[in-house]
């Protein structure tokens, strides 16, 4: 034995993997506390090396002698004192400091537990090695314990240091005794992270905490789960639009205001929560104001519910009063003193309206800081500007100064940029200069800011109900915002705030910002209120009610859109739209798309139009980007460009995975937007499915063969690991910026030099710096499935394209714009358009039509000048657009071009005609004059028929969807294809020459003949016509005059009819479908056409009718003939014939 | 016993010296699922919250072997030297501790004083 050991130790090598493996067999077996191969195991051996080095060093410094000396002393001491003997060992050993012991194989063997043969042991490490390793292990365990406990203690210390900590018990007590409590505290007091935890540990369960921003939900959930020692559990979670970490074990959930509202929509009493915390109520977002209103009535209904409002110390009384004087707990913030310096911009440097910002005042401040403060005194600068354009102007100027002085890193910050670099640290002697919009006022908090520059300006969106236009305007900020901005300088130490306005300006500022509910269109809000059955929106008790006119505008708009009926109640389409978290127009597209075989492209387009444009403005003028983008462009319109961009991206994703990042950069695309699109698209698909508007995906058992499935599973596991690794790494450390960072980040153009510059950065952690977005994407989506779905919409035939356009147009209606008649003689940049409510709007420079306006002009070979302001053509076009936004000019964005006559007849809410239908006025502002009465009648009549059928199928589809039956059953495929075929033919092949123009104000005043007396109507004898039109009651229009034929078409109500008698003028006409040949008035003819189908089709229709709605299947009506005085059951054609019979006989 | 303690994690440990509060899941010398590990004193133990590994434990504190004060393992509150001693008792019987310990404590006192001034 002894010789064995000696031999072993002689050949023992601590660095040899074999030797270590032998020790692993003793200490780190599969059932041990630390297992070989685990991360802790790796850490142990690293620790072991350090430990050994430490020991050798200590041995060499001769601690042995000291120990002996001390032993003696100790003995002496003990003799002297007559106190309690602690019974401590005589000789010091660090081992005695460790309160852990571990049972490993050698001990088990000694105790006889193990059946290992001693032979095995003799070939392994000797006792000395084992005991060395054991000692190291004990120290390692002790070290890990200390490390973790240190973290815990530090955490608790930080919590204790927060200003809110001393109010802990008071808060819990208030919440216990009051249904509503207001907690007011300024940034840094810790309310958002601590209050939910106080409630949790006081025993409250099921706590929801709303945030105005998604990003805050994620970061708070992360922080709070860490602080409540549940970092790896799911006690604390978040839920945002596309992501949730919520499990049944979740007790505290951070979610967006909008999401909580949706949950109330599902469950009116919100029974899943015991406590609701609404954070940042002072920000007064639309959703938040509404949420407070809803919760206010809920509190009365549910006395057990606890509601906590958290706010900055702004306007607290307003919130308290709204909830019948709820108690307020005010917590002081933690701010260092801040010096305020007013530096109004001198008049010669004031920018005029159209000019760029003058950077001089800003540069002076940078210079001043450089002169006054030594570079070793750290502290960054935060500069508040109103918008993105202003940021790039000032950034450019500051960058030049920074490059020159090498003392600044200039970084922009606004909502469309990833905020990564602004959180990183500047190298010594260099300051960050962060140029930001008001996003850094509350939403994004950057540590280490010492200087704040406040321009005093903000850009805010407002809604002009008269022009139905959004407006992005620059305003002075409020005093509250001004203070908020100032406060950003004093978070980590005393600071300085430079205000680029006079103190008198400050005094004149409004006290608070205008709440969003007073600024924006309320369409979605009203729709949601209706679906929540909250009664009349005008009588709803808002914390600060919006103007009644604004509510009225929204109600009218929703009626126009068909979401509300005339009584103001939700229609079936409206009910569905209320469920969709998108604009009404986008929602409509989705519903319409589900009817036809165009779901896939419509899903993509709807998603694309709901997120910000992926096309970076900054790359617009980069020729390389423009060339690379070219193949993606479609001159049909921006939605088509977005569609092809998305499709191409998905294809790249399938081929190259992470390579898509580069692909996007080269084309000047913000890839984040595409990720948002793909997520949104998926959500839309799920929504349509859950409403029965889309067949659920076949749960095909053969999802590839077994091998493929296994492959996918392994792949997923790998991706999950990558995601976990990334998450662990993420929180670890802030990166130190390089001096050139700002320039790099500024533009992500696709040029090669750029590529190199970035390549360096990517390489730093080549493997670790993988594309986390790509990993998340692959985890969330099945790329091959997505590709399949996308390939459907890849090469749309011209027919599909026409149909898709029509759907988009119907969705977007009434958002239509008319090209100005003189556009063809204007420069590209001076093309002008008109909407019903706003004249002289222009196309946004990012639109395809801005660079290619000719496609909107009426082709010369097709047009005929009919007079000074009449141009006849069959090629007039309109633009359907998503947004009308005024910045420095009113801009249309996301436009698609549509053939005017066809689109208007198929989608417009109001079409009025003269007697022979050659003059049509649409929605009271567009006038179309057709040359040939014959053609006019035919076109109108076809449109009426198609629309009736479209409406019928849509209702059938929606009707059956509410029952929840499988989709597609309500409307047979054949019927649907028939309709789409009809629509496409109508859109593509209607060759009718007509003029198109806007009515003047004078013309609109005298547009209609107005109500007529009975006698005047005698010649068109309405009662006779009534039963002729299936499903519609033809009667005089009470305001316009003429006859209302359908809900949207009023016949012969236009005042300046050329010919008063043409409406009763009969001309011979033969029906192409039946053998009818007789003289008919225009109206009679349309009515006949509406009901008469070709023989074959009639049969089909009846078959289809059996399966679908029965009311339309039979065309026969009960007709009471006054002459015969009999009730007859006849088809409209038969009725017509029957009447003729009497007519001829009386003659 | 082990199971019942781990199922009710809402018992809280409070250090009677520094006031540190944290829920604990086990009290004793043999924390659950720790295999071969034995503690040399009766401890308040919780799952280590800073590692994803569910089996790793964290000792929060224990009782002073002299005065039975409940103290955390933080170096400001207690010291383990074959047994747990709260800082009060350590200071009272400082002379009985080996030189190394005394030196270490003196050094710490100095540095904390330096930090304050």
From TrEMBL, chain A:
Listed GO MF terms: ATP binding; helicase activity; hydrolase activity; RNA binding
Region (Disordered): 58-84, 716-771, 1089-1111
Start-end of Basic and acidic residues biased regions: 67-84, 716-733, 753-766
Domain Helicase ATP-binding, residue spans: 172-332
GO biological processes: chordate embryonic development; negative regulation of nuclear-transcribed mRNA catabolic process, nonsense-mediated decay; nuclear-transcribed mRNA catabolic process, nonsense-mediated decay
Record domain Helicase C-terminal: where: 368-533
Keyword ATP-binding included in the entry's annotation: yes
Superkingdom as given in the UniProt entry: Eukaryota
Pfam family, any one: HA2_C
Record keyword Hydrolase present: yes
InterPro entries in the cross-refs: DEAD-box_helicase_OB_fold, DEAD/DEAH_box_helicase_dom, DHX34_Znf-C2H2, HA2_WH, Helicase-assoc_dom, Helicase_ATP-bd, Helicase_C-like, P-loop_NTPase
Keywords: ATP-binding, Helicase, Hydrolase, Nucleotide-binding
Protein name, UniProt field: DEAH (Asp-Glu-Ala-His) box polypeptide 34
Source organism (scientific name): Lates calcarifer
Automatic annotation (TrEMBL), chain B:
Annotated Cysteine-rich DPF motif domain residues: 13-105
Pfam families: C6_DPF
InterPro entries xref list: CDPF1, CDPF1_dom
Family: Belongs to the CDPF1 family.
Name of the protein: Cysteine-rich DPF motif domain-containing protein 1
Organism: Lates calcarifer (Barramundi)
């Amino acid at each position: 034995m002894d010789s064995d050991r000696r031999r072993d130790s002689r050949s023992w090598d601590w660095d040899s993997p074999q030797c270590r493996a032998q020790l692993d067999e003793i200490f780190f077996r599969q059932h041990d506390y630390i297992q070989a191969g685990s991360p802790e195991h790796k850490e142990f051996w690293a620790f072991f090396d350090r430990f050994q080095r430490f020991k050798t060093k200590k041995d060499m410094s001769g601690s042995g002698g000291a120990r002996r000396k001390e032993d003696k002393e100790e003995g002496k001491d003990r003799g002297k004192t007559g106190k309690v003997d602690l019974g401590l060992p005589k000789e010091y050993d660090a081992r005695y400091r460790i309160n852990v012991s571990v049972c490993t194989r050698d001990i088990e063997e000694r105790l006889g537990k193990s059946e290992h043969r001693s032979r095995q042991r003799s070939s392994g490490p000797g006792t000395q090695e084992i005991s060395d390793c054991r000692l190291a292990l004990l120290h390692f365990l002790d070290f890990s314990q200390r490390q973790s406990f240190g973290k815990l203690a530090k955490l608790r210390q930080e919590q204790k240091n927060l200003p809110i900590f001393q109010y802990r018990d008071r808060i819990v007590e208030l919440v216990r005794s009051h249904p509503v409590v207001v907690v007011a505290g300024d940034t840094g007091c810790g309310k958002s992270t601590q209050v939910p935890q106080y409630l949790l540990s006081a025993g409250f369960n099921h706590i929801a905490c709303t945030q105005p921003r998604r990003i805050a939900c994620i970061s708070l959930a992360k922080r709070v789960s860490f602080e409540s020692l549940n970092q790896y559990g799911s006690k604390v979670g978040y839920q945002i639009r596309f992501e949730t970490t919520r499990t049944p074990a979740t007790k505290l959930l951070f979610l967006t205001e909008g999401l909580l509202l949706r949950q109330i929509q599902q469950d009116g009493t919100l029974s899943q929560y015991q406590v609701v915390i609404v954070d940042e109520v002072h920000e007064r977002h639309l959703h938040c104001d509404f949420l407070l209103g809803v919760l206010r009535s809920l509190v009365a209904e549910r006395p057990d519910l606890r509601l906590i409002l958290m706010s900055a110390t702004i306007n607290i009384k307003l919130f308290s009063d709204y909830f019948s004087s709820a108690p307020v707990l005010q917590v002081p913030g933690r701010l260092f003193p801040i010096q305020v310096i007013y530096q109004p911009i001198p008049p010669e440097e004031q920018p005029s309206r159209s000019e760029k910002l003058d950077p001089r005042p800003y540069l002076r401040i940078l210079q001043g800081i450089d002169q006054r403060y030594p570079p070793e005194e750290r502290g960054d600068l935060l500069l508040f500007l109103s918008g993105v354009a202003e940021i790039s102007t000032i950034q450019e100027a500051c960058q030049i100064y920074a490059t020159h002085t090498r003392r600044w890193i200039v970084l922009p910050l606004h909502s469309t940029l990833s905020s990564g670099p602004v959180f990183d640290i500047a190298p010594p002697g260099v300051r960050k200069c962060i140029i930001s919009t008001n996003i850094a006022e509350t939403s994004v908090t950057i540590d280490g800011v010492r200087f704040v520059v406040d321009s005093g300006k903000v850009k805010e969106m407002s809604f002009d109900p008269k022009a139905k236009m959004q407006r992005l305007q620059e305003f002075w900020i409020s005093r509250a915002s001004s203070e908020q901005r100032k406060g950003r300088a004093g978070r980590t130490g005393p600071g300085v705030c430079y205000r680029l306005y006079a103190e008198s300006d400050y005094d004149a500022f409004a006290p608070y910002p205008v709440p969003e509910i007073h600024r924006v269109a309320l369409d979605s809000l009203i729709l949601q209120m209706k679906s929540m059955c909250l009664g009349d929106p005008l009588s709803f008790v808002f914390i600060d009610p919006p103007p009644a006119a604004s509510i009225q505008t929204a109600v009218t708009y929703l009626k126009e859109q068909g979401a509300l009926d005339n009584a103001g109640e939700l229609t079936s389409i409206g009910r569905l739209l209320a469920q969709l978290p998108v604009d009404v127009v986008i929602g409509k597209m989705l519903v319409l798309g589900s009817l036809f075989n165009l779901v896939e492209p419509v899903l993509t387009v709807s998603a694309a139009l709901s997120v910000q444009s992926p096309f970076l403005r900054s790359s617009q003028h980069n020729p390389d980007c423009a060339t690379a983008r070219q193949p993606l462009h479609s001159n049909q319109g921006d939605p088509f460009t977005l569609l092809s961009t998305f499709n191409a991206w998905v294809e790249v994703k399938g081929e190259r995975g992470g390579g898509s990042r580069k692909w996007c950069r080269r084309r000047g695309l913000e890839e984040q937007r595409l990720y948002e699109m793909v997520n949104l698209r998926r959500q839309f698909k799920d929504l349509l499915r859950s409403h029965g508007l889309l067949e659920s995906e076949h749960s095909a058992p053969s999802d590839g063969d077994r091998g493929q499935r296994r492959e996918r599973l392994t792949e997923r596991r790998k991706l999950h690991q990558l995601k976990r690794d990334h998450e662990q790494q993420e929180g670890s450390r802030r990166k130190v910026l390089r001096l050139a960072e700002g320039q790099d980040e500024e533009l992500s153009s696709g040029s090669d030099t750029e590529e190199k510059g970035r390549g360096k950065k990517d390489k730093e952690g080549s493997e670790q710096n993988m594309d986390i977005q790509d990993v998340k994407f692959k985890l969330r989506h099945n790329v091959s499935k997505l590709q399949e779905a996308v390939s459907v919409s890849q090469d749309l035939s011209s027919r599909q394209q026409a149909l898709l356009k029509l759907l988009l147009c119907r969705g977007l209606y009434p958002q239509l714009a008319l090209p100005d008649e003189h556009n063809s003689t204007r420069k590209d940049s001076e093309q002008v358009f008109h909407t019903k409510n706003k004249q002289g709007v222009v196309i946004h420079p990012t639109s395809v039509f801005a660079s290619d306006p000719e496609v909107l002009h009426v082709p010369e070979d097709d047009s005929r000048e009919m007079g000074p302001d009449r141009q006849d053509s069959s090629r007039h076009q309109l633009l359907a657009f998503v947004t009308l936004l005024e910045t420095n000019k009113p801009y249309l964005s996301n436009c698609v071009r549509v053939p005017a006559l066809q689109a208007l007849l198929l989608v417009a809410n109001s079409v009025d005609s003269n007697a022979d239908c050659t003059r049509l006025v649409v929605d009271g502002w567009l006038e179309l004059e057709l040359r040939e009465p014959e053609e006019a009648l035919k076109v109108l009549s076809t449109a009426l028929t198609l629309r009736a059928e479209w409406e019928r199928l849509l209702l059938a589809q929606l009707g059956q969807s509410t029952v929840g039956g499988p989709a597609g059953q309500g409307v047979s495929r054949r019927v649907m294809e028939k309709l789409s075929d009809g629509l496409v033919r109508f859109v593509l092949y209607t060759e009718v020459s007509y003029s198109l123009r806007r009515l003047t104000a004078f013309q609109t005043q005298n547009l209609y003949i107005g109500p007529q007396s009975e006698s005047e109507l005698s010649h068109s004898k309405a009662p006779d016509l009534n039963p002729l039109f299936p499903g519609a009651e033809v009667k005089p229009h009470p305001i316009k005059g003429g006859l209302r034929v359908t809900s949207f078409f009023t016949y012969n109500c236009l005042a300046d009819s050329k010919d008063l008698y043409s409406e009763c003028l009969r001309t011979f006409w033969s029906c192409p479908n039946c053998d009818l040949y007789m003289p008919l008035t225009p109206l009679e003819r349309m009515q006949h056409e509406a009901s008469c189908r070709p023989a074959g089709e009639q049969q089909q229709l009846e078959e289809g009718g059996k399966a679908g709605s029965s009311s339309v299947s039979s065309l026969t009506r009960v007709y009471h003939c006054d002459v015969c005085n009999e009730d007859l059951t006849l088809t409209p054609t038969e009725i017509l014939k029957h009447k003729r019979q009497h007519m001829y006989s009386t003659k | 016993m082990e199971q019942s303690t781990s199922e009710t994690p809402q018992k809280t440990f409070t250090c009677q010296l520094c006031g540190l509060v944290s829920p604990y899941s086990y009290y004793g010398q043999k924390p659950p699922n720790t295999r071969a590990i034995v503690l040399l004193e009766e401890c308040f133990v919780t799952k280590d919250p800073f590692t994803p590994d569910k089996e790793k434990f964290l000792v929060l504190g224990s009782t002073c072997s002299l005065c039975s004060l409940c103290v955390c393992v933080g170096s400001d509150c207690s010291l383990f030297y074959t047994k747990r001693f709260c800082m009060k008792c350590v200071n009272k019987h400082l002379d009985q501790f080996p030189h190394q310990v005394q030196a270490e404590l003196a050094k710490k006192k100095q540095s904390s004083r330096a930090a304050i001034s």
